Every structure is written in C-alpha cells, then in structure tokens.
Amino acid sequence: MLGLYVHIPFCNNICYYCDFTKKIAKQKEKEKYINYLIKEIKLYQKYFADIETVYIGGGTPSSLNLSLLEKLLIVLPKKIKEFTIECNPEDINQEFLALLVKYNVNRISLGVQTFNNKLLKTINRKHTYQTTVKSVELIKKYQLNLNIDLIFGIPKQNLANIQFDLKTATALDVNHISYYCLILENKTVFSKMYKENKIELLEEELEASFYELIINFLKENGYLHYEISNFSKSGYQSIHNIKYWQNQEYIGVGNNASGYLNNKRYINKKLFADYYQSLDQDQLPIAEINKVSKKDSMYEYVMLGFRMLQIDMLDFEKRYQIDIFEAFTNLNELITDNFIEKEKNFLKLTNKGLLLNNELLIKLME
C-alpha cells in the first residue's frame, strides 16, 4: 500500500530556522498553485485504490483559507487509514476543524516548537503558549489524533526550558510528540544571523544532555521511543512516516516534492513556472528520477532502519538474499565501537548510537 505526500509551499511568516520550500504569497498565487496541484494529483488517480495514508505538509497547509483547502480536500483519496495535515496553533478554530472532519482528516501535526513565549519570538513563531493550549483543547473536542512538533537546541534555550516543554506536553496528554534538534541550515535567517555573529549556537554536549532528558522523561511518562525523533503512546505511531522509515513506496505531489514509486525515486520541479509548464503539457512535473539499485536499496534499508532504532537481520536477508554482515562488513566495527549491539535477530542502537547517529551513518558508508 502507498502513501501520498501533498506539498503546500505557503506560510504566513518565515521561521528563522526553516529551509523547506516555502514562500509568503498572495491569494491569487495560492489559488493558481492549488489548481495546478489538483491537476497533478489527478495524473496519479490510477493509484488511488492503493493509497492508505495521506500527509499534507509544507510550508503551512493551514495558511490556506477554508474554501481553497476544501477545493484540495475534495480531490484527495477517501477512506484513508491515516490522514494528516500540518497546522500552526494560531490557525486552529472550529470552522477549520469541522472542515477537516468533513473530509475524513483524522490527524493533526501541530507546529508548537516550544511553549516558551520568549523562545517562540527567537525563532519568529507567531503563536504563544496560551494559543497552543487553547488549540490543543479544541482539537481534542473534535477527537482528532494529535502530534506536536517540538525543537531543542534553540539559541539561549536551557535545561529548565526543556523540562517546562516536556511537562507541558505530557500534561496536555497528546498522543504523539516529534522532538527535533535544531540544525543550522544554509539559506535560513539563523544561518545569516550566525555568520553576522548575532546568535550563538548551543554546545553539542548541552544538546546531547537535552536529548537524553527528552528520551528518559517521555519513556517514564508512557511514550514509546520508536524513531530517533519520534515518541508516541501505544498504537499512535505515525503510519505515514513509518512508510518513509521502512523504505516503502509513496507518491509526492507539489513543487519540489519527492516520491518513491515503482522502484524509482523522483523529485518534482522546484520553480513554480517550471512546475506549471509541465502540467500545462499534461506531463508530471518531475525534475529528476533515479532507479534504485540493490546496493542503494540495502543502504537505505539500514540507514532508515537505524532511524527506527533497530534492524531485523532476518528480514534484511529475506529481502536481499544476503547476510547483513556480508553486505556491510564494517558492522562488526560499529559493534566494537559501541554504536550498535546485537540482540537475537536484531541490531539495535546503543545510547551512544542514538546520540551520534549521523557519525554512525558516516562510518557505515566508509
């Protein structure tokens, strides 16, 4: 079964850390994009019966007005197991939630980032602690599954801030938390500020202590740590995102969206003019397409498997007809260096592997 990712590249303001494809646009530009997006979606209609998850991301999908959002929702597959939309807390209201329920959207991913009002201003978010709490309470009234995104590693963030965010999130009793480390990406406001010595980044040791606190606190409060940055109550893991992490196929639509279909990975055209031109010719707006070789597929399986904290060695051998230690001869070195450990039929990340996951993946490629 397939997933469907739908990209909405519009925001009402630009967060200082974000490097995703997005822009602030006028209503007419949004309308034009949605019209072309619908055209692209219809080109994939033959796959609709095989789609079991939909994820509308961005950008900020909740920045669309209700009539434009409804225009999009009408053409998307129905009877979906998990249907997620990304939202900002300030966009949540009864009319918005009623529209989601009408079209069987059953999961919201809320861009909270932090409950600290001062830090929210630091990253240029427009909501407040109070806005978020009201939004969560309203979402619960509509009985929608809820994920909240949080960030650690924000400039000037301290241990007390992390503890406050964790206590607030668990007190709100949300069933899924995605907790990401802030990374300084090129072409972001933070990157420019850093080069101009206007902000200081946190020390890696401090970020590592934040991450350890997050893992331990959420485990103690009944959350399953099932992916490097994701925690959920039992039965509330993200079905759509697991497709990415288990190397399953999915369709991606929208400018600069990526997909994995028929053993080929593709990326859509990024520029609006190029994206529109392809669709004017009734062609998929694909900029790049690559067939996934067996070697690439094996590396992706291991890389993504370690994101989910463990790899099933028997499943790997069944899928690729080769023992995982033959395919990756440096795995024994990673065991010796205490990045991973062998437990029955599984290779599992150690605490060191969790904290130094990128270093582990670099060693795997050597």
Task: Spell out the key features of this protein.
globular, pyruvate-formate lyase- activating enzyme, 3-stranded antiparallel beta sheet, 366 residues, 15 strands, 2 domains, alpha/beta, Arc Repressor Mutant, subunit A
- Percent in helix: 40-55%
Strand order of the largest sheet: 7-8-6-5-4-3-2-1-9
CATH superfamily of the largest domain: tm_1862 like domain
Radius of gyration: 21 Å
Number of helices, where a helix is a run of at least 4 consecutive DSSP H or I residues:
16
How much of the sequence lies in strands comes to 15-25%
Which blocks of ≥5 consecutive residues have pLDDT under 50? none
Instruction: Report the end-to-end length measured between terminal Cα atoms.
Output: 34 Å
The general outline is globular
Number of domains: 2
Structural classification = alpha/beta
CATH class of the largest domain: Alpha Beta
The CATH architecture designation of the largest domain is: Alpha-Beta Horseshoe
Please identify the oligomeric state.
single chain
- The mean pLDDT is 94
CATH fold topology of the largest domain: pyruvate-formate lyase- activating enzyme
Number of strands: 15
